[in-house]
Specification:
The chain is an alpha+beta fold and 159 residues long. The chain has three helices and eight strands, in the order H-H-H-E-E-E-E-E-E-E-E. The strands form two sheets. Strands 3, 4, 6, 7 and 8 form a five-stranded antiparallel sheet that branches. The chain has a three-stranded antiparallel sheet with strand order 1-2-5, with no helix packed on it. The longest helix has 11 residues.
Length: 159
Amino acid sequence: MYIGQGDYRVGEKGPWRDPAQLDRQLTLNARYAVDGSVHFSAKQIRADRLRSVTLYREHHYAAPALLPPMARLPVNRPTAPRLVSARRAASGTVTVDWQPGPGPVPAGWALYLLDGPVAKLVATGRTGTAVTGPASGTYCVSGLDRSGNEGPPSAPLTA
């Protein structure tokens, strides 16, 4: 898939006038086990012409994901953080306050919503950004080092 310049820009002539064109290409890539897609320009993604990026993001990338570990990068996993509090907003979202464990300070975080014995990744972010979950429930958080390696999760906290 090519999102870039020339005759192939979303919103241009031909099949690229259809906002679902990119979504169909990603579906085809998944069917034939294509390992990835290349976007020529982040500018084109941010432009979200015809809401085509929104369409395929909702269909193919609706849930957050952690970076895959890369053996060539340094590993400095943080220790388990501690959940301090959770506040529910009128909108139904939950903001979680946490503190890093002893040792290396995490570069980022991963927030999980527990559903029985299963934990579902619901958000990720950089340390210093708000940790917000989609709904009330039981949460745990883990720290991420700058290479994306995940440390152990915190003890759960119900909001």
